[in-house]
Amino acid sequence: TLNGLARKVGGQIEASHAELYAEINNPKKYGYTKETFLAVFIPNTYKMYWSTSAEVFVKRMVAEHKKFWNIKRISKANKMDLTPVEVSTLASIVQSEQTKYADEWPTIAGLYYNRIRKGMKLQSDPTVVYAHGDFSIRRVYFKHLKIDSKYNTYKYKGLPPGPIRVPDSRVLDAVLNYKKHKYIFMCAKPEYGGR
Prior knowledge:
The protein is an all-alpha fold. Helices cover 43% and strands 0% of the residues. Helix 1 runs antiparallel to helix 2 and helix 6 crosses helix 8. It is globular, with a radius of gyration of 17 Å. The mean pLDDT is 96.
């Protein structure tokens, strides 16, 4: 969440959690909405001075986002008929579905992309957890699926309004280089190894 992001960055630079949250909570200033602003932040190692203000931090993240979205990546997103924010949203779902094995990201991305192209509901459990705002939920039950939220991909077709986490740049690239296949469903392997 934006608040979680402000909490993590606060203390790493001079700007406090409150100052960062106030700046991050003003996404219109940067051309985004509260739902889409998480897409701007791409995890990486950035050299910054301790004295960095909240505004300078956010402006730097916006500049790094623009640098990341080069012509090659924009072209791949366009071929998928997705915007960079939509790629980030899809990547956030892919990474939330598979946190252990990066080699599965392109396959999972392909599966969700197939659902998008078919006009299917994404039916992603992590989006339901995000809709509830209770990140302690480890197992999604039918009672959780009743929540009326645009993030509930069991209820609404297509991508949610924005990312459900700050996705790793490797996941963004996995989405842009998704594996072409015909899968539309997945399930965990029975040995509980996380695949």
